[in-house]
């Protein structure tokens, strides 16, 4: 049976359907007892699995519809960002932000509040202005921003139906340059975290936790904005990298987007990885990620520094990003300007899980919300209060899907 991208989850679903038309999909959903949408399989837990069947929309014959007047694009859910960004850029449009990997599907990314970085940038789901989905009875419905339940439907975790297309708000295309700096002591963040993350459109901080320092600082500036003068401050002692870098120190850089301050298109700088290459790890990794109030970032990093000897043996790299608050019910950024602390672990699940638990204990005082699509062990009773609109979402799931057709053990665990 099929596995996820990382190979740590073998889907239990008995088959994966691949309808060629929306009408076929509607009939399939209406006639199924248990079914669930599958994107590009980049999630790291059993969120995407089904105890019945899965359905991939990769064979649906549809294309992106651009509305230049409204600056929106109606995008088939199975479209990968890697394909979409070229289409948009060639026509003078952009998305405000992208995740680190462009190979993931728009439907899967938005269903789980996938994000990039930048204090002014919301997660990718905040670009959605309308969503079209096939509900449990096989009906095709559209839910639009401003309409009832919209804020509950967008980050839907696959639990409300099979999303066939998403309409995304666009911005004019822009150019960026990306520069990597190396070796900033953690203590520099004590007084300057805010200045650092506000210094450019998208800033990503990396540490391997072998020492209390950032191994790398990735500063991504828009060419139409003032340059990041934070790098001229006396406390910014990190040095510009003398060549391209992979976030994991020493890994081959061929799969990484261009750095060294070379100007380029928005979609060739915002992700860490190039659309035409798989990351060098090729799936040999596990991910966890936690989101907390941005004001707690420095305290949380110090809390993790206290366990770095335990963390670093199973860690490839830890990344810190910022995300603007949103109003999407199941988003980990709901109502909270956030910092995310991400861990790329080694692929040894049994060695990683105890450290995941330890990290969660250290971050518990900050009510750190997990990324829905990554590995976490937070018990359902501890998780539910972190998502204030979770009871509303559970009601919505009951309304849309009274028989639990789109349910699975993951959803049942956390929602009910
Ligand atoms: C190398 C790597 C890098 C990553 N980088 C980032 C990052 O920078 N930022 C970040 O936030 N996350 C990141 N992620 C996590 C990733 O964005 C999420 O796992 C996302 O859900 C993957 O989308 P997918 O299409 O692979 O979804 P899948 O894993 O296939 O499915 C995930 C969920 O989406 C639902 N879903 C998928 N398609 C549909 C649909 N058409 N209708 C309804 N529900 C649907 C599924 O039912 C499931 O619940 C990364 C993952 C990997 C492997």
Automatic annotation (TrEMBL):
Keyword annotations from UniProtKB, A to Z: Oxidoreductase
Coiled coil stretches, renumbered: none
Entries under SUPFAM superfamilies matching the protein: FAD-binding/transporter-associated domain-like
A Pfam cross-reference name: FAD_binding_4
All copies of domain FAD-binding PCMH-type, residue ranges: 9-173
Domain of life (superkingdom): Bacteria
Entry-linked Gene3D superfamilies: 3.30.465.10, 3.30.70.2520, 3.30.70.2530, Uridine Diphospho-n-acetylenolpyruvylglucosamine Reductase, domain 2 (3.30.43.10), Vanillyl-alcohol Oxidase, Chain A, domain 4 (1.10.45.10)
GO cellular component terms attached to this protein's record: membrane
Source organism: Nonomuraea zeae
Protein name (record): FAD-binding protein
GO MF annotation list: D-arabinono-1,4-lactone oxidase activity; FAD binding; L-gulono-1,4-lactone dehydrogenase activity
């Amino acid at each position: 049976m099929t596995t996820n991208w990382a190979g740590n989850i073998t889907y239990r679903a008995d088959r994966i359907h691949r309808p060629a038309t929306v009408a076929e999909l509607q009939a399939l959903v209406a006639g199924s007892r248990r079914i669930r949408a599958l994107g590009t399989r980049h999630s790291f837990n059993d969120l995407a699995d089904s105890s019945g069947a899965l359905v991939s929309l990769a064979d649906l014959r549809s294309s992106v519809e651009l509305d230049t007047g409204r600056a929106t694009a109606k995008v088939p859910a199975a479209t990968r960002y890697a394909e979409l960004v070229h289409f948009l850029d060639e026509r003078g449009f952009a998305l405000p932000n992208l995740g680190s990997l462009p190979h993931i599907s728009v439907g899967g990314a938005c269903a789980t509040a996938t994000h990039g970085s930048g204090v002014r940038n919301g997660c990718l789901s905040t670009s959605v202005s309308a969503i079209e989905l096939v509900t449990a009875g096989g009906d095709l419905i559209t839910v639009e921003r401003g309409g009832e339940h919209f804020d509950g439907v967008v980050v839907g975790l696959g639990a409300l139906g099979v999303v066939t297309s998403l309409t995304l708000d666009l911005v004019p295309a822009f150019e960026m340059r990306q520069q990597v700096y190396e070796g900033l002591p953690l203590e520099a963040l004590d007084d300057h975290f805010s200045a650092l993350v506000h210094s450019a459109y998208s800033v990503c901080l990396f540490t391997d936790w072998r020492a209390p320092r950032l191994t790398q600082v990735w500063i991504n500036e828009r060419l139409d904005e003032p340059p990041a003068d934070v790098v001229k401050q006396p406390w910014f002692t990190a040095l510009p990298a003398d060549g391209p870098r992979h976030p994991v120190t020493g890994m081959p850089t061929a799969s990484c987007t261009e750095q060294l301050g070379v100007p380029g298109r928005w979609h060739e700088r915002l992700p860490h990885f190039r659309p035409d290459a798989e990351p060098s790890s090729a799936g040999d990794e596990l991910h966890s990620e936690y989101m907390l109030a941005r004001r707690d970032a420095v305290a949380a990093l110090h809390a993790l520094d206290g366990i770095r000897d335990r963390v670093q043996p199973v860690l490839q790299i830890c990344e810190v990003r910022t995300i603007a608050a949103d109003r999407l019910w199941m988003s980990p950024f709901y109502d909270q300007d956030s910092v995310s602390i991400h861990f790329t672990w080694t692929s040894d699940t049994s060695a990683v899980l105890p450290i995941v638990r330890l990290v969660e204990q250290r971050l518990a005082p900050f009510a750190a919300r997990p990324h829905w699509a990554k590995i976490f062990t937070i018990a359902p009773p501890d998780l539910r209060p972190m998502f204030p609109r979770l009871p509303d979402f559970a009601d919505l799931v009951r309304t849309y899907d009274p028989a639990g057709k789109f349910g699975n053990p993951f959803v049942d665990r956390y929602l009910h």
